[in-house]
Design goal:
The protein is mostly helical. Ligand OF5 binds next to helix 4. The ligand COc1ccc(OC)c(-c2cc(C(C)=O)n3cccnc23)c1 binds next to helix 4.
């Protein structure tokens, strides 16, 4: 294995860590915690071409794959819209994703982000 010295967290990574934790709190059933598999959701991988979940987003933060906040927001929206695409409107998953999307977008509003945005030089 490649020996990686401990990488310093950039201000953006620290900000995304905070937002990721805040989103996790709003998914108490952990429906969005892990990738959706075809076992639990028949045909999922043929319907949803770009899957996304919170564990994948966390890995991308740690690998410093988000160059800016908007890329993180795009993955968050993709995760929620995937659930609204695959699940019918009367399911617990559709309803949870709609609620999570609105809660998350409120988090990203500049007034709510005030002190967080100061983290980025
Ligand atoms: C019932 O317990 C779980 C546990 C984990 C899940 O996804 C990681 C899901 C789940 C999550 C989803 C989503 C997000 O579409 N889903 C769709 C259909 C059937 N199950 C799910 C449900």
């Amino acid at each position: 294995c490649v020996l990686r010295q401990r990488q310093e967290r950039t201000p953006l990574q620290r900000m995304l860590d905070h937002l990721h934790k805040a989103i996790e709190k709003r998914d108490p059933n952990q429906f969005f915690a892990w990738p959706v598999t075809d076992n639990i959701a028949p045909g999922y991988s043929s319907i949803i071409t770009k899957p996304m979940d919170l564990s994948t987003m966390k890995q991308k933060i740690d690998d410093n794959l988000y160059g800016e906040l908007q890329e993180f927001v795009a993955d968050f929206k993709l995760m929620c819209t995937n659930a609204m695409e695959y699940n019918h409107v009367d399911t617990v998953y559709y309803k949870a994703s709609k609620k999570l999307l609105h809660a998350g977008l409120k988090l990203f509003q500049p007034d709510k982000m005030g002190w967080l945005l100061q983290l980025i030089p």
